[in-house]
Specification:
Blueprint (H helix, E strand, L loop, with lengths): L1 H7 L5 H10 L4 H5 L4 H20 L13 H17 L6 H13 L4 H29 L10 H20 L22 H15 L1 H4 L2 H13 L25 H16 L3 H24 L4 H11 L4 H13 L3 H14 L4 H13 L3 H14 L4 H13 L3 H14 L4 H13 L3 H14 L4 H13 L3 H14 L4 H13 L3 H14 L4 H11 L5
Helix pairs in contact: 1-2, 1-4, 2-12, 2-13, 4-5, 6-7, 6-11, 8-9, 11-12, 12-13, 14-15, 15-16, 15-17, 16-17, 17-18, 17-19, 18-19, 19-20, 20-21, 21-22, 21-23, 22-23, 23-24, 24-25, 25-26, 26-27
């Protein structure tokens, strides 16, 4: 698609630009990170919309029998909508089409502006909707985004040069870059936006000598990047003001400009140009392959991020979660303590640190960290559940019930919270209340095996034996390898006089776990002839 568009625009070196776009390592993040596959999808629609629009309004202005069809316009509009639905960074597509028409014709005709006006309005509306959602639903508000207009301009100027630099020299690429300290009192920080403005002015001044192409390429680059330059709040700014995936589509402008420059230089020597192009593409291919390896596993990604950005507290929290998940709690504690040094108001880090400390046997310190997490975020359900678990483990059942009730109050539709409260109530002897909590958990998730097990146990304690048998039978159906459910089912079946079924249940327990002594004893008692 890139090659077809650039060839249609008669850009020299269009094949080289397409190859560089395909092979450039700065695009690995968009292709390898599943969350940003929407970049690739939306770009495909964006580029397809461009080709369709060129059939409606050829950039060279020559309308014939094969062009100017309104069906082509409708197709372009439909593809643009698809691009917007993929990712609203494509909202600038109508402006990009006006820029291309200005470049090729030297002016923007009234009919072109009127044709693209509805799509411009649609793009603006979608962009504003996304900006509102970032603030209202994603959470892009707070201290990290509390920047003045001047500071946002400083971010934008520096980001433009950062992205251009990574295209020219893609070294040190990482998932999370260090977050810049923006200080409007430092005159040096004004050099970036000043240099960007100077570059645009210079290209405008020289356009009659060198053509408008370079200016159009730079304006496309900056304009497409605009939503991610700091003027709007986006959630990733919490971690860094820049990210490789932000420039996926925008990079086409500078890549096309670089390829055209390379094609011009190649006229001095065809062989030299081909060799140089081959070396560049081979180098980019190797760098892309190496960069892609960092995305093979989550652990590889976070370790690479920390190797290049040791102050990335988010990477430390996520790496610690992986380490904790496989039992490496001491290493996890080290990363979490460092994360809290870097970000002392992070509730998740306190909660996860509490979990790892609890696994290491330090329950008192773990509980202190759960409380600290809740001081920061009183609605943090995981911390309430973990605090309840710690109280329950220590035999403080009323405190455990209170903690679980807080979890349920904040998230009543979470089965795990309802189940945990049910367990604590059962331990406290409030069996009827426990059974009701288990039922609530199962209404939320009918396949919640632990919920069926808990309900069966609670019902057995209050004498509802047949209902208890049915609950345990469902638990066994959902997880045939769950020994405790089958053993308890066998006990209940024996208790209600269904001996044959009880024998079958205990035999199944022993098939799964041959050394299960209680099941052996129960089976032997059922099979032994009654004494006279």
């Amino acid at each position: 698609l890139v090659w077809l568009i650039l060839r249609r625009l008669r850009v020299p070196g269009s094949w080289l630009a397409a190859a560089v776009f395909a092979l450039h390592p700065v695009h690995v993040e968009s292709a390898a990170w599943i969350t940003e596959r929407k970049n690739v999808l939306s770009a495909a629609f964006y580029l397809s919309a461009t080709l369709a629009f060129f059939r409606f309004r050829p950039p060279d202005g020559q309308i014939d029998a094969k062009t100017g069809s309104w069906s082509a316009y409708m197709l372009a509009a439909l593809l643009f909508v698809c691009a917007l639905l993929g990712k609203t960074v494509t909202a600038s597509w109508p402006a990009a089409m006006l820029l291309v028409l200005w470049w090729k014709k030297g002016r923007v005709e009234r009919r072109d502006a009127l044709t693209l006006a509805p799509l411009l309005a649609l793009g603006a509306a979608m962009g504003l909707l996304t900006a509102w959602m970032e603030r209202a639903h994603v959470g892009a508000e707070g201290e990290e985004w509390d920047l003045s207009l001047v500071e946002r301009g400083l971010v934008a100027g520096r980001a433009l040069w950062f992205y251009a630099g990574k295209l020219v020299w893609p070294a040190g690429l990482t998932f999370i870059y260090p977050r810049w300290r923006i200080d409007s009192g430092l005159w040096q920080q004004y050099l970036f936006p000043a240099a960007a403005c100077a570059a645009v002015v210079a290209l405008w001044w020289w356009r009659k000598r060198m053509g408008s192409g370079p200016l159009a390429a730079v304006l496309f680059f900056a304009g497409t990047l605009a939503p991610a330059l700091g003027f709007f709040n986006v959630y990733p700014f919490r971690f860094s003001f820049v990210a490789d995936h932000f420039q996926y589509l925008a990079s086409l402008g500078l890549i096309a400009l670089g390829a055209a420059l390379g094609a011009a230089l190649a006229t001095w020597g065809v062989t030299l140009g081909r060799v140089t192009s081959g070396i560049v593409l081979a180098t980019l291919g190797v760098l892309t392959w190496r960069q892609g390896r960092h995305y093979e596993t989550a652990e590889a990604l976070w370790r690479d991020t920390l190797a290049k950005n040791a102050d990335c507290w988010m990477a430390r929290i996520n790496l610690a979660e992986i380490l904790s998940g496989r039992g490496e709690h001491r290493d996890a504690v080290g990363h979490l303590r460092e994360a809290l040094r870097l970000k002392p108001d992070n509730a998740k880090a306190y909660n996860n640190l509490g979990v790892s400390l609890d696994r290491l046997g330090n329950s008192a310190e773990a509980m202190a960290h759960y409380r600290k997490a809740l001081d920061i975020d009183p609605k943090y359900v995981s911390a309430w559940i973990n605090l309840g678990n710690a109280y329950s483990k220590g035999g403080e059942l009323e405190q455990a019930v209170a903690a679980y009730e807080e979890a349920v109050r904040h998230t009543p539709n979470l089965p795990a919270a309802q189940f945990s409260l049910g367990q604590a109530l059962a331990k406290a002897g409030r069996t009827q209340e426990a059974a009701e909590r288990f039922r609530t958990a199962l209404r939320l998730d009918p396949r919640f095996v632990a919920g069926w097990l808990g309900l069966g146990t609670a019902l057995a304690e209050v004498g509802e034996l047949e209902a208890a048998v049915e609950a345990l039978r469902i638990a066994c159906q959902l997880n045939p390898q769950l020994v405790v459910a089958r053993y308890n089912l066998g006990l209940l079946l024996a208790r209600v006089g269904r001996t044959e079924e009880a024998i079958a249940a205990f035999q199944e327990v022993l098939r799964i776990e041959p050394d299960h002594a209680p099941a052996q004893a129960q089976l032997q008692a059922l099979l032994s002839p009654p004494s006279r």
